[in-house]
Amino acid sequence: MLPRRSLLAAPLLPLATPALGQSAGDWPNRPIRVIVPWPPGGSTDVLARLLCEQLTHKLGQNFVLEDRPGASGNIGMEAIAKSAPDGYTQGPATIANLSVAQFLYTRLPFDPEKDFSLVSMHWELPNVVVVSAQHNPTNSLQEFIAWAKAQRNGVSYGSPGVGTTAHLCGSSFCDRLKIDGQHVPFRGAAQIIPAMLAGDLTFAIDNLASYTPVIAEGRVKAFAVTSPERWPSLPQIPVMAEAGVPNFVVTSWCAWVGPAGMPRAVIDKVNAAMKEVAADPAVQRRFEQTGARCVWSTPEDAERHAASQRPMLKEMVRISGARME
């Protein structure tokens, strides 16, 4: 379960639910389409697959993934928002989709606060500061900061797209520490990692789940995580404050959603299954192996959590100077 301190930080927002008395009936009596708004191989895709495997088992119908990446998740989120609210289209909605997009885009094809039925929190993970082991000479975050400041032509940092936590963390990091940093957007970590390993990209502060394998292989060096405490799967990596950069806590997270108006009985049925999934130690170990933590919440607490993050993220968007049409 997500810690209470992070779920109780904002006032309750109303859930968009159908009229009382609506029932899940025989739901689900056919496969559920799961739209993933991010590229295959990234953390959102990998962790959605782990959850769908469990939901298929518990609810007796296949949860079939459909990757719909593009426009920093907006293409897939629009598809979820505009689908029939019958419970047969669901998907993962990240912090970028629910708590950043409204501050970043001049126009959105959906309203993050009104167009979705939140079911539960799905996962949480920190971002991690990483550099290429082959192409970067530093061995700690403070060494890296000093080295980066000394680069006459500046440094570059990658992200899976404008407005992602990787972009906002990289921008805030460079702004605070007076580093000349150039943002380089990619489609996802599957493109960022090769660029870094080739020496074409200096660093990233991106989702830990995407980098766990290359950290374990020693191909990248991990200097710090952005969680409040050390992460269970990589306890040797310090948090940002321990590494000399205080007040830099930004966890990536994801909620499970459907379109607004999804029957409350369906929401409750999926929520109950997700609660069982999050309580399963074997499932937790699988999530932790990817660098994430499987979490659960009530639908209302998922709404609170998304709302509580928005003021901080609005300021990070302002610092980044990013604006999208």
UniProtKB/TrEMBL annotation:
InterPro entries: BUG, Bug_dom1
Keyword match Iron: no
SUPFAM superfamilies recorded: Periplasmic binding protein-like II
Alphabetic keyword roster: Signal
Signal peptide start-end: 1-21
Family in the record: Belongs to the UPF0065 (bug) family.
Entry protein name: Tripartite tricarboxylate transporter substrate binding protein
Organism: Siccirubricoccus soli
